[in-house]
Design goal:
single chain; about 110 residues; alpha/beta; three-stranded parallel beta sheet; two-stranded antiparallel ribbon; 4 helices; 5 strands
Amino acid sequence: RHFNWLQRFYDQACAGSLQKNAAKDDEIEIPVMESVRIGVPKDNAFSFYYQDNLNLLAKMGGEIVYFSPLTDKHLPENLDGLYIGGGYPELYKDILSENEIIEVLLYKAV
């Protein structure tokens, strides 16, 4: 519901208003969104993120809130969205499947 800015940003990029070869970040018009809290799972199972993407979300006004599906029993409070990166969750499938609370909370959040 809060991510209409993402579609606008994508549309701008596809329309060529964001130049791939821009010399500086400040030459690119970056839309600022209303304050949103973005939950990001980060632990041994979910560890692959492009830092530039996280920096861009923060620069646009997003508050990045990390949590661990391996150890946490609750999602961070008041999340507006989730950004789930890559990693090797299959290596931790037994531990992840034992954390039923976070599994249910993630399912409901999505």
